[in-house]
Amino acid sequence: MSVRTFRKAPNEVLDYTFTWPLATGETITLSTWSIVKEAGAMGAGDLTEDSSTNSDAASTIWLSAGLAETNYAVINRITTSDGRTYERTAFRILCKAPQAR
Fold first, then answer.
1. I want to staple 59 with a disulfide (CB 3.0 to 4.6 A). Which of 7, 31, 83, 99 is the partner?
2. pTM of the model as a whole
3. Which helix (H) or strand (E) holds 86?
4. 62 exposed, middle or buried (CB, 10 Å; 0-12, 13-18, 19+)?
5. Using one digit for the tens of pLDDT, what is the confidence trace for 16-58?
């Protein structure tokens, strides 16, 4: 399964949703997110989780900030009603400076 890459300007605050292919009747009971800078350590101005939510089969994260020309992996870890724990790189974010109009 390939991981989708989204572009985001550093000044945008956007939501991203990852839908999990769970077994029939299985639901998400806990969802946590982590952000990994693909080159170097995280620091001031890097991509930031503002908030997150989940439904029975999907997890949503709101992201802000990010350094221009920087790639980030956004990882979702869930626990399900059947006691399973899954962790996936849900998507990647490429922060790009806004283009002049």
1. 31
2. 0.92
3. strand 85-95
4. middle
5. 999 999 999 999 999 999 999 998 888 889 999 999 999 999 9
Residue 24 corresponds to which tokens in the numbers above?
Answer: 């029939």
Residue with tokens 């992201």: 63
* 3-state SS record for 19-65: ECCCCCCCCEEEEEEEEEECCCCCCCCCCEEEEEEECCCEEEEEEEC
Residue 38, phi-psi category: left (phi > 0), alpha (psi -120 to 50), beta (remainder): alpha
Reported for 45-50, long-range contacts at CB under 8 A and 24+ positions apart, including other chains, are 45/10, 46/70, 46/72, 47/8, 47/72, 47/74, 47/93, 47/95, 50/13
Surface-to-core class of residue 2, CB atoms within 10 Å of its CB (0-12 exposed, 13-18 middle, 19+ buried): exposed
